[in-house]
Write a structure and sequence with these properties.
about 120 residues; alpha+beta; 4 strands
Length: about 120
């Protein structure tokens, strides 16, 4: 499973952080916690308090680059409980867990996936 990021990236879109870390290509955008505002609005509204990280029982929300929370789904999955949403004081996470989709990204199962076999 992967998130689709097939568009080419120009040299101007590479960040200084990518270059200093020796990344030939810029890293993919971080997956923000469920019900996060669009990236620019999220970065403006998030005060990096860590309340959403502490509220996550699955421990999938971690401190990412520049101290902003991001989701890592390698160890566990999101249950969409809404605890991170409730804990967010800065209102960088907004939505209704019973009505709204937690993410705009869509998982894509490639043809080589064992589930297709």
């Amino acid at each position: 499973m992967h998130l689709r990021t097939d568009r080419p990236v120009s040299v101007a879109q590479r960040t200084r952080r990518d270059l200093l870390r020796g990344r030939a290509r810029p890293s993919a955008a971080a997956l923000r916690p469920p019900w996060a505002l669009p990236e620019a609005d999220f970065v403006s509204a998030c005060d990096r308090c860590g309340d959403c990280i502490r509220a996550c029982e699955q421990r999938i929300i971690v401190v990412g680059d520049a101290g902003f929370p991001e989701v890592r789904l390698a160890e566990d999955g999101c249950t969409r409980c809404g605890d991170c949403l409730t804990a967010c004081r800065g209102k960088a996470l907004r939505g209704n867990p019973e009505r709204d989709r937690p993410w705009e990204q869509v998982a894509v199962l490639a043809d080589g996936c064992l589930a297709h076999a």
